[in-house]
């Protein structure tokens, strides 16, 4: 019995030493962790006019921890260490990665991105919609495509640029007509196969106009679409099929070509 008591007495200091060492290590670790982890604040603005960016995403790289900016473009976030990297991003701007370091305030200026995020096309009645949100086939051609290699008839510039569109130009030379068909022929009358042309909301006919000349030689007087100046075109949207151009009625049974011309816009100087 005496030996048992002596054994317990000798073992007590050892147990306390182990507990003390464990508590000490945990305390030091917690203190170091609290010294590294801290709250940082900052603001996200646009380059140029320094306007605040509302809803910009601030994410700690490699984690799912993050936040978004408020109405004033400001944010507040707890970072675990000085080595933390903030990934700041927003639609239409270039993403940035910033090392926190020993700073408590991090202000970020985002530059505009020149990448095209999603194609926006002009649909029936001049409404702008994203291509992926449409349930029918629409394809757009920007205005600069018509001035890269100039044609005597602007419709000739569509050749090879739009899927399902056939361009047939006459051999009568400058001022000759160009016939446009979408997804093939549907009538024996060549003028009934062409799509409806809409220029800034105004329908125009692209029918081929001609007459019989001397010696029964036909004369080609051209068609209205050929009179459009390529320099005036901002964009051209091709609505393929009756579903795309249903709002224009039976005249657009073969599709429609919407031409939007350039206009003056307000710009900040």
TrEMBL record:
<dbReference type="InterPro" id="IPR039426">
    <property type="entry name" value="TonB-dep_rcpt-like"/>
</dbReference>
<keyword id="KW-0732">Signal</keyword>
<dbReference type="InterPro" id="IPR023997">
    <property type="entry name" value="TonB-dep_OMP_SusC/RagA_CS"/>
</dbReference>
<dbReference type="InterPro" id="IPR012910">
    <property type="entry name" value="Plug_dom"/>
</dbReference>
<feature type="domain" description="TonB-dependent receptor plug">
    <location>
        <begin position="134"/>
        <end position="256"/>
    </location>
</feature>
<keyword id="KW-0998">Cell outer membrane</keyword>
<keyword id="KW-0813">Transport</keyword>
<dbReference type="InterPro" id="IPR008969">
    <property type="entry name" value="CarboxyPept-like_regulatory"/>
</dbReference>
<keyword id="KW-1134">Transmembrane beta strand</keyword>
<keyword id="KW-0812">Transmembrane</keyword>
<comment type="similarity">
    <text>Belongs to the TonB-dependent receptor family.</text>
</comment>
<dbReference type="Pfam" id="PF07715">
    <property type="entry name" value="Plug"/>
</dbReference>
<dbReference type="GO" id="GO:0044718">
    <property type="term" value="P:siderophore transmembrane transport"/>
</dbReference>
<dbReference type="GO" id="GO:0009279">
    <property type="term" value="C:cell outer membrane"/>
</dbReference>
<protein>
    <submittedName>
        <fullName>TonB-dependent receptor</fullName>
    </submittedName>
</protein>
<keyword id="KW-0675">Receptor</keyword>
<dbReference type="GO" id="GO:0015344">
    <property type="term" value="F:siderophore uptake transmembrane transporter activity"/>
</dbReference>
<dbReference type="InterPro" id="IPR037066">
    <property type="entry name" value="Plug_dom_sf"/>
</dbReference>
<keyword id="KW-0472">Membrane</keyword>
<dbReference type="Pfam" id="PF13715">
    <property type="entry name" value="CarbopepD_reg_2"/>
</dbReference>
């Amino acid at each position: 019995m005496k030996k048992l008591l002596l054994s317990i007495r000798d073992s007590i200091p050892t147990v306390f030493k182990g507990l003390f060492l464990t508590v000490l290590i945990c305390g030091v670790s917690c203190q170091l962790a609290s010294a590294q982890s801290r709250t940082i604040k900052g603001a996200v603005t646009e380059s140029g006019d320094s306007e605040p960016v509302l809803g910009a995403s601030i994410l700690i790289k490699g984690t799912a921890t993050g936040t978004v900016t408020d109405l004033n473009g400001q944010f507040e976030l707890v970072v675990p260490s000085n080595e933390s990297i903030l990934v700041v991003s927003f639609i239409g701007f270039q993403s940035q990665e910033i090392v926190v370091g020993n700073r408590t305030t991090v202000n970020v200026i985002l530059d505009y991105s020149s990448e095209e995020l999603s194609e926006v096309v002009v649909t029936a009645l001049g409404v702008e919609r994203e291509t992926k949100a449409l349930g029918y086939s629409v394809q757009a051609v920007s205005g600069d495509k018509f001035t890269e290699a100039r044609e005597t008839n602007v419709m000739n510039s569509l050749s090879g640029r739009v899927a399902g569109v056939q361009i047939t130009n006459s051999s009568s030379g400058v001022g000759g007509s160009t016939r446009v068909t979408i997804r093939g022929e549907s009538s024996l009358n060549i003028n009934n196969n062409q799509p409806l042309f809409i220029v800034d909301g105004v329908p125009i006919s692209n029918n081929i106009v001609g007459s019989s000349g001397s010696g029964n030689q036909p004369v080609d007087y051209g068609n209205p679409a050929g009179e459009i100046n390529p320099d005036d075109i901002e964009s051209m949207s091709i609505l393929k099929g009756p579903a795309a151009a249903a709002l224009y009625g039976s005249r657009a049974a073969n599709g429609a070509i919407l031409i939007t011309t350039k206009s003056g816009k307000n710009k900040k100087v």
